[in-house]
Amino acid sequence: MTIENDDEKISYLSKFLQDQELTSKCKKICPWDETEKDLGKFWSFLKNAKIDNNFLQLPDGTYFLGDKKQGSILYIRKCYLHLADIIFNEKIDHCRITGNPGIGKTFFSYYLLYLLQKQNKTIVYHKACQHPILFNKQYTFRSNKLFDFKEYLDNTNVWYIVDGQPPLEEFDKMIGTSIRFMPIWSWNEINECRIGMFNHLEIAKVEDLYSRWGGIPRFVLENALYSSQQNHLEEAISKCNARLLDFVGEIDHTDDISHRIVHIHTNLPDEEEEKEDEESHYIKKFILFASEWVAEKVMDKFERNYNQLLRNFVTASLFENEYITLQGVIFEQIAHRILQKGGSFYTRSLESDFTSTIEIPERIKLLFNDINKIEEDKYCQPIQKNFSSIDAIVAPHTLFQMTTSRNHPINVNCMKNLVEKLGGKLGTNHIYFYFVLPKDLYDKYQAQPFYTNNQTVAKKIPCWITNRVKQYALKIDSW
């Protein structure tokens, strides 16, 4: 190789000396290195990985980080694409991706390695409880000390990927740090991954686990057949107590019980918004029970042992923003039970302010994860919160939205998705949209606007919505 330019000579010499110094401090790993050949092989062959139908497949005999336990295939979630675009945005210097354990954050880091390798980037990769690794264009280095990579970490062109390594609080304090929330898995993601990677699992088995665990593939797919792992959910429910009200809203609480019982959700883009403003997505967090099954189990226990505490919590902290999400979770479960059993309820039109009493009959409860499974005249609840403007539907005429917040816009995209279960676009029936409220909110509640998933006012509202949807407040004053 001939280098004629002086600047290029200096740069080449500096890089050569840096590599020589690094080799003296760290273990240099090559694909043919017998002691850690699998790690070197992974990095050398990563660029040859193939993407097919949302799956990234490494070459035969190659494993992520050279670890057979990590496998050689990963499912590329749609949020991986969005979050990668956000991370590669030049406006963002530091980004932390957080969320529930077991949803694929580590595999997202492998996907980032793949993208960066294709760009010939140098990366320092540091996984919790493991020695840091430096990946550059040609070689891989492993060291006992992160400090050995200091010169690389000081280089703004080098990427530093950390997986589960504390202290998170110090990282968050860095100027320019952006925090994004990785969502739990939807049923469609779970099933697509089942077909591609876990096709030995029967769909009925996976559906049952999903209805219990919610969108956590670690337990719904990876550990589906291990009873010792499946027992963790029942154990978490049996151990939960009033402390749940203290730590349920903590994003990074290390208590496994809380993460199994409640899940972190975030604001997702819909198909129309994916290309519009991705920087505003994945930044909000709200806490919900892992599933309707878990919610029922926990509420049974709380109503038996902590009923007065529940009352005090839902009412005493009303309007205090830091508690609104937790309030809503508890109040929603209470309201579901009351509405399903039926009875007399005070209602107020949010258009005319006319008040009346309505009789709601007791109905059979039906849980669904597919809109097509909704049945008329049953109290239908979504298994997961994919329907961001409704908590229950009695097709074809009634929608319920429980809230402890003064503002709860109606999601127009959710309404569009439900149209066929509400009489269709050409239907003539009224659609009663009830905001189910604690008594302290009932008298003051106002009609709500229609928003997109992006929390902006919808510019186009279908005529069938404006003509047929009637908003009401419905009071829950005792339980």
Automatic annotation (TrEMBL):
This is Crinkler family protein. PANTHER family: ATP-BINDING PROTEIN, PROTEIN KINASE DOMAIN-CONTAINING PROTEIN-RELATED. The lineage of its organism: Eukaryota, Fungi, Fungi incertae sedis, Mucoromycota, Glomeromycotina.
